[in-house]
Amino acid sequence: METLIKPLKIGSFICPSNLILAPMAGITDSPFRLLCLRGGAGLVCAEMVSANALKFSSKKSFKMLSINPKEHPLSMQVFGGDPQTIALAARLAEKEGADIIDINAGCPAKKVNKSGAGCVLMKDPAKIGEIVAAARKSVKIPITLKTRISLNKAEILSPLIAKIAQDNGADAITIHARAAVDMHSGEPNLKALEETCKAVNIPVIGNGGITDAKSAKAMFNCGCQGIMIGRGAVGNPFIFSEIAATLNGLEPKPLSLSEKIKIFKELIEENVKFYGESTGVSRSKKTVGYWLKDFEGSSAVRSQLVLAQTLSEVEKILAPLIK
Questions:
Q1: Looking at the structure, do residues 183 and 298 belong to the same domain, yes or no?
Q2: What is residue 97's predicted lDDT score, i.e. its pLDDT?
Q3: Alpha-carbon span 169 to 144, nearest angstrom
Q4: Gap between the Cα atoms of 139 and 155, Å rounded
């Protein structure tokens, strides 16, 4: 039987495994990326950075390019609608130490789309080709593209876009197997994903709705050489090692409630070190619902954490749940 979990070659770079953390705005910062590498991810992707903001020397955006020496391999995702601006962002990310540059052409957020970036680029596949080509010429490290199967359910665009990306120098392509109108809900379109895999020779990485070994295997069976996990990793950064164990015929050991809460506490502490107490605690609240669920009294604990302002308050609230 073919081994599904194995190293993944993207251009000149080899990831230790083909299980990848997806870029998620406001979530996949340095502390969380480090945690997912510990949890078995073979590649972690940073939250997307605005190429246009980098062009105008935004301090916040430049901070997002910062890479901890311990968090490799890392892919830095950039977004924008202008080829030369994307090329500039790619050069800056390469200079900061990124192993791979990923270009976003699938984000359905209105704020991103209004700038001519994200999924609106799918309306003009030729422009996607120009953007990929400009990035390819600007750096030596691998270039990947992340997009969706379609804008709506009527017309599947991903096979064409994948082919254009390949022809313009992309080393791999990630396909979120849902239409842009679906956002992050609904079943992935595995038939369209399979058609995309058949359209190109570069690796296709499947994304969308992967929560366990069964859903991961379904994407591998479409012809994907790798899979990318987003929301499934929030609240369970060890999902990568759990999926790897299951698909390798082993019995995974899911985290106990106490272990899970302890890891969440450690993540909050790292956020505080990285951002300072106020911002670190505040950012941690975004994912409380993913970490604290499905146990007696979880709703009350979540409510307390939402009101917490300091690290000591957070630690006091979580202490009774850690054995």
A1: no
A2: 97
A3: 9
A4: 33
Would you state the pLDDT for residue 185?
A: 87
In single-letter form, the type of residue at position 284 comes to: S
Cβ count within 10 A of residue 111: 11
Of the chain, the end-to-end C-alpha distance in Å amounts to 41
Tell me the per-residue pLDDT of 101-141, one tens digit each, with 9 for 90 and over.
Answer: 999 999 998 899 988 999 999 999 999 999 999 999 999 99
Q: Which of 15, 36, 45, 107 is catalytic?
A: 107
Domain boundary among 188, 222, 247: 247
Q: What is the CATH number of the domain that holds 120?
A: 3.20.20.70
Tell me how far apart the alpha carbons of residues 209 and 20 are, in angstroms, rounded to a whole number: 14
What pLDDT is recorded for position 54? 94
Q: Is the peptide bond before 23 cis (omega within 30 degrees of 0)?
A: no
Does residue 197 carry a catalytic annotation?
A: no
Three-class secondary structure of residue 206 per DSSP: strand
Per-residue burial over 237-257, b = 16 or more CB atoms within 10 Å of its CB, e = otherwise: bbbbbbbbbbbeeeebeebee
Give which of 270, 266, 238 is closest to 31, Cα–Cα: 270
Domain of 304 in residue numbering reads as 257-321
Summarize pLDDT for 140-194 with one digit per residue, the tens. Answer: 999 999 999 999 977 999 999 999 999 999 999 999 999 999 988 889 999 999 9
Give φ, ψ of 177 to 5 degrees. -80, 40
